[in-house]
Amino acid sequence: MDWQLTEEQELIVKMAREFAQQEVAPRAAEVDKNHRFPGENVARMKELGLMGICIPEAYGGGGADYLTYIMVAEELARACATTGVILSVHMSVCTYPIFQLGTEAQRQKYVVPLAKGEKLGAFALTEPGAGSDAAAQQTVAVRDGDHYVLNGSKCFITNGAYADVFIVAAMTDKSKGTKGISAFIVEKDFPGFSVGQTEDKMGLKGSSTTEIILKNCVVPVENLLGQEGEGFKVAMTALDGGRISIGAQAVGIAQASLDAAVAYAKSRRQFGKPIAAFQAVQFMLAEMATRIEAARGLVHRAAWLKEKHRPVTQASAMAKYYASEVASWCANRAVQIHGGYGYITSFPVERYMRDAKVTEIYEGTTEIQKLVIAGNLLR
After folding, report:
1. C-alpha closest to that of 20 among 116, 92, 84
2. Is 363 labeled as catalytic in the residue annotation?
3. CATH numbers and ranges of domains, the chain
4. Using CA atoms, how far apart are residues 110 and 197, in angstroms rounded to an integer?
5. Stated pTM of the model
6. pLDDT tens per residue across span 81-136
7. Rg (the chain; Cα; Å)
8. What pLDDT shows up at residue 315?
9. More exposed terminus of the chain, fewer Cβ within 10 Å: N or C?
10. 70: nearest Cα among 42, 50, 40, 97
11. What 3-state class would DSSP assign to 214?
């Protein structure tokens, strides 16, 4: 892997960093406080070409490589984790999987408007009784002539109330377990589709997380993504990419935590000197910085492997597992360095701590990542 970024990569990341720090970061606390979906950030990402950054230009995207997208995702999360996850879900587990696995007709109909930012994407796999155990799906799809009829519900759907296009997993043959799952491209305006309750979360408070209800939802046959019975494969392919972007989100949160800790340590004085002069604080900062660089390296390696179309399942699991734990650890340390001020909302580190936790949970818990890694080692 060549660690030297190209001129194009540097320019795109610089643009994303300036946008994130100048426009996104100043809104982050207000978005969190008011549980507000940052529509203006999404609109600006559309204008800047970030909503389809790693989709080829022929399909409405920016034509950048996957690593560039991942670096952009980190910059956004560094400024506002809510904004970062909106792009991550839209791109990694909706737009890119349709581009990667869809038919040419599906690409033209869905990838083009998604990549242009004209539509927002989401991914619906999780159910109240089917989280890590995807085979426990209760949502069913029954073919009826030229369409399928879907019945069931999904939970914890990021972008749920604002998305236009969803990849939805449903059972077409329950007797086959995971091999009986199929994936469908579902539009919000399809008959029988509705958005249920919105969740009030610990963190990422500006992102929309909802229930999705499918009641005799009519989906055209041509909206089957892949073949019948390939839905689990579609979901795992999507999650391989999603885990890399969540790793990038985690690195962004960790970096923001370090940035805040360094700035505070330099300005806060105790016993006649800045607390940065004390070895205990210096050691925390040093370990934060080292862990962040290690996590970033794992995330970038996984993105590089995906770009080169090499096996990425284990690498993405490692990146997501380690980066998410680093995010939580660094946010915790940043709060500790801030002392009492770290526990109040006037300083951003308490938000980083809340936002970091979910990176250890969604798109596969830490424990699931360890199972994936071990499974690859032992097969």
Report:
1. 84
2. yes
3. 7-120 (1.10.540.10), 122-230 (2.40.110.10), 233-378 (1.20.140.10)
4. 26
5. 0.95
6. 999 999 999 999 999 999 999 999 999 999 999 999 999 999 999 999 988 888 88
7. 21
8. 97
9. C
10. 50
11. strand
